Sequence to fold (652 residues):
Amino acid sequence: MTEPLLSVRDLVVEFPKRKIKLTALDKVSFDIYPGEILGMVGESGAGKSLTGAAIIGLLEPPGHVASGEIWLKDQRIDQLPYEQMRRLRGKRIAMIFQDPLTSLNPILTIADQLIETIQTHLPLNDKDARARAVQLLDEVGIPAASKRIDDYPHQFSGGMRQRVVIALALAGEPELIIADEPTTALDVSVQAQIIDVLKRMCHEHKTAVMLVTHDMGVIAEACDRVAVMYAGRVAEIGEVRQIVKRPQHPYTQGLMGSIPSIVERVERLTQIPGSMPRLDAIPSGCAFNPRCTQKIARCTQDRPELITTDQGQVSCWLYDGETP
Amino acid sequence: MIAMLIRRLIQAAMVMLVVAFISFSLFQFVGDPINNMVGQEASQQDRAELRERLGLNDPIPVQFIRFVGNALKGEFGISYRMARPVSEVIAERLPATLELALVSGVLAISLGIGLGVYTALRRDGWLSHFIMSSSLIGVSLPTFLIGILLIYLFSVELQWLPSFGRGETVQITQNWSTGLLTVSGWKSLILPAITLGLFQLTLLMRLVRAEMLEVLRTDYIKFARARGIKQRSIHFHHALKNTLLPVITIAGLQLGSIIAFAIITETVFQWPGVGLLFINAIRFVDIPFMSAYLLLIALVFVVINLIVDLLYFAVDPRLRVTKRSASR
Fold:
């Protein structure tokens, strides 16, 4: 098996709030392998975006990594000083945000933003950097890239801007891109194109992607593996096909049951009773236990760790001791 | 671009016309100008003659058109108080006011932006807290009190700087004498300039700080950080320009009010500018001077607004007409 590109181990992110500490991420562990696309799903507030922000070192204060480790290949990156982390951002890990309309600086041209990013990370002179910028825009599918490069963001449509954003993220040839809901703010018709561009670019540049989304359609379409998050914890990680077809964790099962299917006609979609607990009211034991239909006595007492099964990893006591 | 400029110019002309009408009506409604001009002993006939000679018997619109025509030529009549052409008196005093306004404007804008950016970037530093708290003084204390306090401290107690006047001036052209070329001129300028600019300085500083903090929270700054752009460039290339967009308008208007409201500062420091002259004109109901001053200040504001509009156009690409339509 290949070495993981990124290893997150027992990551805890806390937000101190007056006297109490809110634990937004609680012992999150997962790996991303070179060139793969890992999906991150979960409800709003499950900690998907926060995981991305923690990896790239852009948690909004007072949020901070309280414990755990983040390894990029053989370098530990969760404790790097600002300047070293800055050099790494864009060069080895890049990030794409949700809203392409606000991700680009309105008063700088696309060329300004691309060339500066390229020259920050690669030793290119102005002419070469510009040529590379044009090439990147061309690759992400901007028509007449050499002319459009001197335009301002407002002269592009939403979908085109997200392509520019992808080009910007790829400018430093990163090994990993964290895409934080890259299609949520776009028209449905454009979403598929953008996912396509992202998939193609990452395949060509051999870039791994952590794709944060709450859209199972996007996950099924684009990802190799998927991690399901719930209340700041990882509920389940596995191959996309396994998770979609045979989800293990009761939460994932509920999640999959709530997706309408074109093939089967169902009178009512299943829904998970209750809602995700607030950060200051996470129950003891398994965070999902109050809503779980299959809970056993142990679920309210001990918190399950990620258990490796034949289909992946799941944090649920139902699978404890089944397979080594 | 040209169309916009023409539109703005027409608007500016309209504004000036309205102000001209107000200035003009001063003559009509603030007492009878004839009474102010002739002595107690003038006979009824003398008055009627003068009235006829000055054209005061013509219909109001005709008089107004004549007023505007004269104003365009720079003629505002004879000052009642000084018995000299108003335009001449203003031209003589304007340099002093403009110098004062220029220095305090530069002071307010440069320090306002500089300190605003500093306090935004070092939000939790003790120096920032200190600057922010002391800026409340600038915002809340009235101008004349600041002037008097400065005089007390630097002129009376420390005796470092003069408390009134312009110091030595150098005549550059016939009408333009400057204090910027002599040491005593600069010394005299310091206190009034601080007094006049302090409010604008603190206002701009607080505005720049608030805007900068706002901009630093935007997605495009986050995205720039996520791309590993250097801190310096993020602050001064990516964020500052966006911060300054809304500041331009305020700064422009503040510059206008620096010139317009130099009156108080000039009174406190006995600064021989138009503002001081204006106060005296009010005391003597010197209507030609007052109406000319009103027009002058209106002109200053209109011109500054025009410049602000053009600056916006130069700075914000979104306002420029796109040559190519956005592709879908």
